[in-house]
Amino acid sequence: MSALIDHLQQNYSGNVWVVGGTQLQNTLIEQNLINQLDVFIMPVLLGSGIPLFPRFNTTERQLKSLQAEMIENKIIKQSYVF
Recorded GO terms, molecular function (predicted)? Predict the structure, then answer.
């Protein structure tokens, strides 16, 4: 994981949009490498599943809501900043 982070820091100076699962997002959040988080909610009721944010190795973080947007009356996109 650190090789990916090193590569991004060395080769990109602007914003990078990262799509990934909980292991990737948690690593980036724990290392303070994410300043905005977009959460896409697709309302389907499941009996179980993978948590969006499993346990962190850092302290609690406060998020500030930027906006919420409905996409095709099916998906809710919520944007937050740290």
Answer: 5-amino-6-(5-phosphoribosylamino)uracil reductase activity
In this structure, what token pair is assigned to residue 13? 């100076």
Helix (H, G, I), strand (E, B) or coil at 22: helix
Give the single-character DSSP code of 72.
T
Q: Considering the entire predicted model, what is its pTM? A: 0.70
Q: Is 48 left (phi over 0), alpha (psi -120 to 50) or beta?
A: beta
What is the rounded CA–CA span in Å between residue 1 and residue 9?
Answer: 13
How far is 11 from 43, CA to CA, in rounded Å? Answer: 37
Per-domain residue ranges for the chain? 35-48+59-81
Residues 12-31 pLDDT 10s: 887 778 887 777 888 888 88
